[in-house]
Amino acid sequence: MTLIRIENLDISFGKGADRVDAVKDVGFDVARGDSFGLVGESGSGKSTILRALAGLNPDWRGAVTYAGEPLSRRPSLAYYKRVQMVFQDPFGSLHPRQTVDQILREPLAIHRMDDRERRILEVLDDVRLGPSFRFRFPHQLSGGQRQRVAIARALILEPETLLLDEPTSALDVSIQAEILNLLVELRAARSLTFVLVSHDLGVIAHMCDRLAVMRQGRILEFAAADALDDGRFETDYAQNLFRASQGYRAEQGDIA
Amino acid sequence: MSFEQRGRRIEAVRGVSFEMGREKLGIVGESGSGKSQTGRAVLGLSEGKVEATRLRFQDLDLLTLGRRIRRDLRGGKIGMVMQDPKFSLNPVMRIGKQLVEALRAHEKVSASAARHRALAALEAVQIDDPERVYRAYPHELSGGMGQRAMIAMMLLPGPDLLIADEPTSALDVTVQQTVLRIMDRLVQERGMGLILISHDLELVATFCDRILVMKDGRIVETLAADRLHDAEHPYTRGLMSCLPGAATRGRPLPVMSREGLRP
Questions:
Q1: What was the ipTM of the complex prediction?
Q2: Do A250 and B184 count as a contact with CB atoms less than 8 A apart?
């Protein structure tokens, strides 16, 4: 069943000569329970799409439906309860003067959810932090722990979809492994739908069932995750991207 | 190498020993492993306390060298490229002027000769339109272009050693390849030594000749780059096996405990 449907999505910034068309005529479907990856280099528009889905980019044109309902430019509170986002930088996405408890309490207050004590303790447990982290400030946490708090903040509303924008690219590989494992477990346990943006093909290969390769605002091609087993892509660009992700290769034809 | 922090002594680098020739040496490790501090110790850029039995560059004893000579060495015989050109280039000075300034700090050359060499250096790092880049401010360049300009600047005085600290981490993968190729070629053509400091094991293994793996301020393993897959230390093996990819889909990634790999 299709949960997210995007058709003819255009997103631009600025006016006149300064106008930048960040996303051009993009369309894709994500089925409920699926994990969909958006890959591309910087400026390809992948995060811009995610931000539009999260209601952070109201200036989009096109047709977006979520669970059969058209998505409004200013989504309702009910939408945010179902769709939550986790950002790249756990250093920038948590309020530095709020404790973990305050950070987790805020979405509960906004959505007027009760039983807050229990929910906070439960979600801390779900992200493997435990109650001892509850009254700490972000600066007292490591990068991986902060990202766990950010995931907890998204999960506390019991959403059905997580929008993940480079959730591990600011982390060391050993910490990345822990966070990816956590996300996989949570997805299975809660039947979550993921839309994951990453420049790291390894992360996408590990996490996603299906992916779209983006370049300069457009989707170049769709592929099943097993295209990443051996780089079986249709377009030269995607093949190059795959090869470049395998480490350095001394001169054998130029990329770029 | 140690730092004082609120009365506590923090040892960032502990008992590290290595020597290198005109080769590509990789230093890998996660954040806090001391890899960057090791590079900074060679440059004399550390704010911490550096202690060593020996710290030599060619026939110079870096531990007893006067500040002036040390300064001449930096950006002269030893160049450094850092992670983000946005922060290592002066934002309010045109690229060309920065290149000329860097060159004339180390060599007595006329203004026109300096300009000439700066343009040639920009060409050497495969910048198509050196005149434009020469006139540009750093914010007018892309990350890959800025990094090339930075490399050009470091190469002007003809260094014998280039220390590159995560030089491509802020760049897209395809641009990363281009920048690495430029460095690779320059190392070969000029017979320079290169220290590549990176968190990216795969990259270092494919680019360098030899790898030092660091953890908690120590070198845990030294390897020929093409022998990475025969690594013996549990930490090195752990670093490799926790990388996600097509092969790991559908099963949990191994995670590391403090001792190494946790099953």
A1: 0.84
A2: yes
In this predicted structure, what is the pLDDT of residue B178? 87
| Phi, psi values for residue B3, rounded to 5° | -125, 145
Q: CA-CA distance, A150 to B186, in Å (whole number)?
A: 44
Q: Produce one character per residue of A208-243: b if its CB has 16 or more CB atoms within 10 Å, e if not.
A: bbbbbbbbebbbbeebebebbeebebeeebbebbbb
For the segment B10-15, the average pLDDT, to the nearest whole number, is 92
CB B155 within 8 A of CB B80: no
**In terms of DSSP bridges, do strands B218-224 and B210-215 run parallel, antiparallel, or are they unpaired?**
antiparallel
Q: What would the two tokens of residue A252 be?
A: 């054998």
Model confidence pLDDT, tens digit, residues A203-241: 999 999 999 999 999 999 999 999 999 999 999 999 999
Q: Which residue of B has its CA nearest to A241?
A: B174
pLDDT in tens, B158-215: 899 999 999 988 888 888 888 899 899 889 998 999 999 999 988 999 999 999 999 9
Phi, psi of A152 (to 5 degrees): -60, -40
Residue A255, chain B, CB below 8 Å: the answer is: yes
**Residue B255 pairs with which residues in a beta bridge?**
B262
> Minimal CA–CA distance to A84: which of A166, A152, A178, A186?
A152
Q: Which residues of chain A have pLDDT under 70?
A: 251-256
- Cβ–Cβ gap A173/B242 under 8 Å: yes
